[in-house]
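R.M. (postdoc): so does anyone remember the format we settled on? I'll just put the C-alpha cells first.
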C-alpha cells in the first residue's frame, strides 16, 4: 500500500519507516569507535549510492542545492568516513551553525483568493509569503517527512511546512483555456508550481486537508486533481469526512468521520495512505486516542500527526517536547494575528536565531549545539547519528 505514496517522477523520497523502534545511535562517537575498528558498515554512503534505507538518492538533489556534482564533491569518501568515525562535523557544515533541535513552522492557510481577510490570502500575498520564506532560507518539506525527521534540505536552510485547510476553490482550481481545463495560475497549486519552476531549490511540497463531498469545489475534477497532487509530491490529509467538530459527536461518529475520509480519498487515489489529520476547529474528541487510529465499517485509519490550529512553531522532531499528535501551526496571515502570525515568527527567528531549526544538509545526521544536548529525544533517531558541537 505504501508504494502508492511514492510519486512517480517527482523525485521525492518518501520514507516509510516510523521514527520509533529503530536503532539509536548516540553522539556517533562511542559507536563509531567500536565499529571503526572492525568495519565501515556504519560509515556514510557516498552521495551517488542508495541511501541507507535502500532507496535511490533524490535525482533532483542537484537542482535543489544548486550545485554541480563537481562543486558538491567536497571531502573524499575516505575523509568522510574518518570524520564520521570521529563524530566530527565538516567545517563547511559547522559554518552554517546547524541546529536540528530548533523549532520549525507548520503554516496554516485556508483560502487563496479575494479579498484578503483573516482566513483568505490573496494570490499576490501568497506569492510574497513564498518569496519571503525563500529569501530567508526556508525550504518547503512535506508534513510527514518533517514529523518523521526526514528533512532533506541544504545545510544552513530551515524547513517550512505549508498546509491548506478545507479544500477551498482557491487551493486548486481549473479554468478553461481554448476549451481545455488548465490550472488557474492564481490558485495555491498554480502559484506553488510556478514558484517551484523559478526556484527549484525551494522544493515542491504542501499538504491539503480536504473534506468531502466536494474538495476544491469542482465535482467533475475531483479525481483528476487528487491524482495530480499526489503525482507532484503533495500530500492529502484528513480533515474529517464532513468537516465535523469532533468534540461534539459520539465516539462512533468520530471513527466514522475519519474512516469515511480515508475511504473516499482511496476511491480517487487507490491505495493512498492518509497519514495526518488537521482537526476542524482545532477540536479534539473527549477520547483523544480516537484520532490516532481506529476503524469503522471495515475501513482502518491511522494518523501519524494531528495538527492543531495553534499559534506557535513546532519543536524539532528530535526534541523531547515534540509531540506529533499535538502539532501546533502558525497562521499564515497578516490580519488579527495577535503577534503570533507567520511574519511575527519570522521576525522572532531573526531576533533569536538559536530558536530556529537549521539543517546540517544531511538527513543521516542530527546536528545541534552542545548547549541543547539535554533536550534531545533519544528514542526517535532511526539510524541517525547525533553530533553536538561547542559554540
Ligand atoms: Zn476546516
Amino acid at each position: 500500500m505504501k508504494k502508492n505514496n511514492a510519486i512517480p517522477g517527482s523525485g521525492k523520497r518518501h520514507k516509510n519507516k516510523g521514527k520509533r523502534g529503530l536503532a539509536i545511535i548516540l553522539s556517533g562517537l562511542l559507536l563509531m569507535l567500536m565499529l571503526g575498528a572492525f568495519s565501515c558498515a556504519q560509515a556514510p554512503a557516498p552521495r551517488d549510492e542508495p541511501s541507507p534505507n535502500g532507496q535511490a538518492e533524490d535525482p533532483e538533489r542537484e537542482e535543489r542545492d544548486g550545485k554541480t556534482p563537481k562543486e558538491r564533491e567536497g571531502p573524499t569518501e575516505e575523509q568522510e568516513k574518518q570524520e564520521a568515525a570521529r563524530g566530527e562535523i565538516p567545517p563547511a557544515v559547522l559554518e552554517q551553525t546547524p541546529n536540528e533541535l530548533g523549532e520549525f513552522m507548520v503554516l496554516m492557510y485556508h483560502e487563496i483568493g479575494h479579498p484578503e481577510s483573516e482566513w483568505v490570502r490573496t494570490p499576490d500575498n501568497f506569492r510574497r509569503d513564498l518569496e519571503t520564506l525563500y529569501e530567508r532560507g526556508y525550504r518547503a518539506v512535506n508534513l510527514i517527512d518533517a514529523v518523521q525527521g526526514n528533512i532533506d534540505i541544504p545545510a544552513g536552510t530551515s524547513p517550512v511546512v505549508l498546509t491548506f485547510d478545507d479544500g477551498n476553490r482557491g487551493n486548486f482550481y481549473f479554468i478553461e483555456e481554448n476549451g481545455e481545463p488548465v490550472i488557474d495560475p492564481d490558485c495555491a497549486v498554480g502559484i506553488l508550481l510556478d514558484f517551484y519552476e523559478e526556484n527549484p531549490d525551494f522544493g515542491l511540497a504542501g499538504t491539503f486537508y480536504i473534506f468531502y463531498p466536494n474538495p476544491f469545489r469542482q465535482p467533475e475534477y475531483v479525481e483528476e486533481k487528487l491524482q495530480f497532487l499526489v503525482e507532484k509530491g503533495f500530500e492529502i490529509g484528513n480533515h474529517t469526512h464532513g468537516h465535523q467538530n469532533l468534540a461534539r459527536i459520539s465516539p462512533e461518529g468520530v471513527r466514522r468521520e475519519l474512516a469515511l475520509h480515508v475511504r473516499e480519498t482511496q476511491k480517487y487515489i487507490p491505495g493512498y495512505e492518509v497519514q495526518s489529520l488537521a482537526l476542524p476547529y482545532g477540536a479534539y474528541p473527549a477520547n483523544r486516542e480516537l484520532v490516532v487510529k481506529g476503524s469503522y465499517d471495515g475501513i482502518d485509519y491511522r494518523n501519524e500527526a494531528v495538527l492543531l490550529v495553534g499559534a506557535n512553531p513546532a519543536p524539532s522532531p528530535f526534541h523531547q517536547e515534540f509531540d506529533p499528535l499535538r502539532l501546533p501551526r502558525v497562521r499564515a496571515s497578516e490580519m488579527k494575528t495577535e503577534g503570533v502570525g507567520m511574519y511575527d515568527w519570522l521576525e522572532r527567528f531573526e531576533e533569536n536565531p538559536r530558536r530556529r531549526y537549521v539543517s546540517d544538509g544531511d538527513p543521516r545526521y542530527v546536528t545541534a549545539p552542545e548547549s541543547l544536548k539535554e533536550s534531545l529525544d533519544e528514542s526517535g533517531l532511526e539510524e541517525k547519528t547525533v553530533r553536538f558541537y561547542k559554540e
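R.M.: ...and that's the designed sequence above, right after the C-alpha cells. Also worth knowing: The chain has two domains: 2-98+359-389, 105-355. The pocket of zinc ion is lined by residues 165-166, 239, 243, 280 (CB under 6 Å).
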